[in-house]
Amino acid sequence: MNNLLAFEARKLIRDGKWQGPTCGMTLGFVQANLVILPKKYAYDFLLFSFRNPKPCPLLDVLDAGNPVPKIAKDGDIRTDIPKYRIYKNGTLFDEVTDIKEIWQDDFVSFLLGCSFTFEKALLENGIPVRHIEENKNVPMYITNIDTVPAGVFSGKMVVSMRPIPEKLVIRAVQVTSRFPAVHGAPVHIGDPVKIGIKNIEKPDFGDPVEIKENEVPVFWACGVTPQSVALSSKPDIMITHSPGHMFITDLKDEELAVL
Amino acid sequence: MNNLLAFEARKLIRDGKWQGPTCGMTLGFVQANLVILPKKYAYDFLLFSFRNPKPCPLLDVLDAGNPVPKIAKDGDIRTDIPKYRIYKNGTLFDEVTDIKEIWQDDFVSFLLGCSFTFEKALLENGIPVRHIEENKNVPMYITNIDTVPAGVFSGKMVVSMRPIPEKLVIRAVQVTSRFPAVHGAPVHIGDPVKIGIKNIEKPDFGDPVEIKENEVPVFWACGVTPQSVALSSKPDIMITHSPGHMFITDLKDEELAVL
């Protein structure tokens, strides 16, 4: 179940033949986070994303009611994700494999870059990615870093953490700086307390991972930020992918590199 | 009248002591294009800018009614530009030095990157900029390149042209690629006909410049694009800076470099 082309993976998912996580399904193709909001929230969310490009790197914004992304021409945002979460008034309401029946003409879909792309780049540069080695979810933490508010949306930034060997930290900054569309350079290197993380062994989301001797915790802005910020404003309806169950685009990872 | 700090230049302009072009007033500070539209057009314009980052590189989007940019903390968008143009229903209505009296609570201000920043980088890399040498306005052309439409906004891309010595073309691509927030890498190198420009000696805006032997015309997306696209949709009111009379921000040119 890997080395599929993007359109093959989307079809498999659309036909109900794959309902698991998408990690590793399509090597080299960009996978994306999904946030769907009614049009009345779309301006504030678009502005929030512009003002917070590191946690909210937009890849595509679909016109209201349109389920076909520009970055996945044969795709359908309503069927091509293995698992969706439906939130009502800020609370998880249901988890489904298809949102065709609840689709509304005023739904605006936002696709946001996810860290899979830059993790591949780290690995290709010989930089270890601990949670992949340990077969866990990446540890994520709510920080004391304020996002820049926009309309109804505001809140603290969520970050993901990867322990990096001291002598590879500079290379890790360089490698991820090339990919601003998938969170880009780290937001913090070193002491977790400086960004309001009290216990590195107790992530707010995901799993704890080992930090070895001579390794430094390095923190990147995380795509959970826009979801948590949007939910805290309690929109009457909001739909996202389920964690790890991403939308697979036609973009190749290297196409997102700035240089 | 150069080497001023950004806030000094803004005060000079605000006090009515400078009404000319801002080029060269504040070396090293980013200057910006201004587009003001009523809130009802703001979502479409923000989406258009996201979908067309090369011609419309957003630096700041102000909340409706707020005249103080984040990137110029003591600044005031209503007074700190030497000359404004007011358009009504898509037609130039007036040119003024202050818009305090016509300011509306629903005005959303967009600041967009301008080419001054990347021209400075070209010069510092020993790459000549012809229209500066000839003391002219940069030549600009309407191309056959479609922008990606968003809501009421759509139209062709406007480009600026700089003749570059053949052996410096690659360096020019590298240098400007570092600055995606001010149009970034070129959109076309060489034959003007390929992008719908019939007569390179007759620009649609600005002045013609000499193309010497062994020089190649290189084309960059131009900030005139969002203005021309917005005007063609005939908003009941729209305010911009007058050409060359820019808003001076607190950002330093190098802060916009991606690497």
UniProtKB/TrEMBL annotation, chains A, B:
Highest taxon in the source lineage: Bacteria
A Pfam family per the record: D-Glu_cyclase
Molecular functions per Gene Ontology: lyase activity
Keywords associated with the record: Lyase
Coiled-coil segments: none
The keyword Lyase belongs to this UniProt entry's keyword annotation: yes
InterPro entries in UniProt: D-Glu_cyclase, Putative_hydro-lyase, UPF0317
EC numbers on record: 4.2.1.-
Assigned protein family: Belongs to the D-glutamate cyclase family.
Cited PANTHER family: D-GLUTAMATE CYCLASE, MITOCHONDRIAL (PTHR32022)
Name of the protein: Putative hydro-lyase ATZ99_07930
UniProt organism field: Thermovenabulum gondwanense
